[in-house]
Amino acid sequence: MTTTVLRTADELHARVRTGRRAVVMTMGALHEGHATLIRTARGIAGDGEVVVTVFVNPLQFGAGEDLDRYPRTLDADVKIAGLAGADVVFAPSVDEVYPGGEPQVRISAGPMGERLEGSTRPGHFDGMLTVVAKLLHLTRPDVALYGQKDAQQLALIRRMVRDLNFGMEIVGVPTVREADGLALSSRNRYLSATERRTALALSQALFAGSDRHAAQEALRARAREVPATHARAEALSAIGESRAAADTHAVAKAAPGGPAAVRAAARLILDDAARLNPPLTLDYLALVDPSDFTEIPDDHTGEAVLAVAARVGTTRLIDNIPLTFGAAS
Questions:
Q1: d(Cα 83, Cα 17) in Å, to the nearest integer?
Q2: Is 300 a catalytic residue?
Q3: Nearest to residue 66, comparing CAs of 279, 314, 280?
């Protein structure tokens, strides 16, 4: 399909709209993760319109971060977007988005924006929300799609849209990974071969935590089927159901700190990676409530996000995985 490149909001607003408009916001350097977002948007928009924004936002880069070296590959981005189903690539200049220079009035991310990524990168989420708000106004979508890989960003955008009555639907799309498990990111291209091997510890740590969580949940589900009493365990063992008896005993003896065990399983992988050459330098490992990104307590039930951020060489990477505690009653 033919993908139109537009540079100004007036050009975009002049288009005749039919059906729903779905928007995917990017900073360019598109990869398969972005393509998945665009294909998902195409399915949602149907006969409507898919708009992909390409804008490297200076407000969300802090001092010493990689604004200048962030890849700018518009021609390649347009090809990828078109193949994935985009009708329009909206690639405004900095002057188009911020015509009066840096805005004096900005969106505040509030307390959630000061945690995890916000603690490591002060002001990042204020800048992110400000440009997202502007791009939502400029593109006027019915639905906007964002990747789960940036889970805290997604949570903040959802909160902003809800709190400030933006009036469009926000859709999160699961993280896309490379064959070795590394979450797709435009920054992966900065990694040398040895750095990439170290970087795999991020996803490996998340999978270890997820596996520990799945084992705990399965154990608890089995315990609900087989009451965790000493007498029942002895009876089961007597008739040869040793696995069920062992599970019953394990649940009866288990400490209630399910989240703590998940964190510990992930931490083991990260601690090992810190001793590699080159080493992984951990920024944070957190198991949080996705509604506000505070650490979950040991008795938490419901959704959670296991999140990690670390540096390998000069490259900073983030990743996360969603979990649900106490899914069965």
A1: 21
A2: no
A3: 314
CA nearest to 118, candidates 309, 269, 266: 309
In this prediction the pTM is 0.86
Whole-number pLDDT of residue 300: 93
Find out whether 112 and 156 touch, Cβ atoms under 8 Å: yes
Largest CA distance in the chain: 80
Q: Could you say which of 13, 34, 213, 249 is catalytic?
A: 34
Alpha-carbon distances of 185 from 36, 59, 147, 283, 316, rounded to whole Å? 13, 20, 11, 18, 11
pLDDT interval class at 70 (50, 70, 90): confident
- Is the Cβ–Cβ distance between 50 and 22 less than 8 Å? yes
Kindly compute the dihedral angle of the four CA atoms of residues 16, 19, 24, 30, in this order, to the nearest 10 degrees. Answer: -80
In tens, the pLDDT along 76-99 reads: 999 999 999 999 999 999 999 999
